Amino acid sequence: MITLTQSSIKEVKNLLAKKQAALGSGLRLSVTRGGCAGMQYVMEVDVAHEGDDTIEEDGAIVHVSQDSFEFLKGCHLIYEYSLADSGFKVQNPNASRSCGCGTSFEAKGEEGTYDPADDCK
């Protein structure tokens, strides 16, 4: 289960309204290989796909694909407000470490298996 904070609920709803998202659309939160720590978070507005885990809370909808769920279970999706770096952040108990910007992480059990230089080959 992924937990949404009040700030993330508010901003997911704002994002969907701003994008004039189709009925049933939500913020898709997924994980792909890449980034400086091995795995990176990807967020986009999208409709639900077969097999997705969908979280609905107070009008905010978040879709998580089946292949990303193991990396995201137990996460907290928050929205931080700051002058320099406002945006969605993921507090992830499945990360053994995260990069400084917070968009990339190394998954527990995969420590040392990723070399960012491999993406350049």
Automatic annotation (TrEMBL):
Gene Ontology molecular function, alphabetical: 2 iron, 2 sulfur cluster binding; 4 iron, 4 sulfur cluster binding; iron ion binding
GO biological process: iron-sulfur cluster assembly
Pfam (any one): Fe-S_biosyn
Signal sequence coordinates: none
Residues of the Core domain: 2-102
Record-annotated membrane-spanning stretches: none
Protein origin, superkingdom: Bacteria
Name of the molecule in the record: Iron-sulfur cluster assembly accessory protein
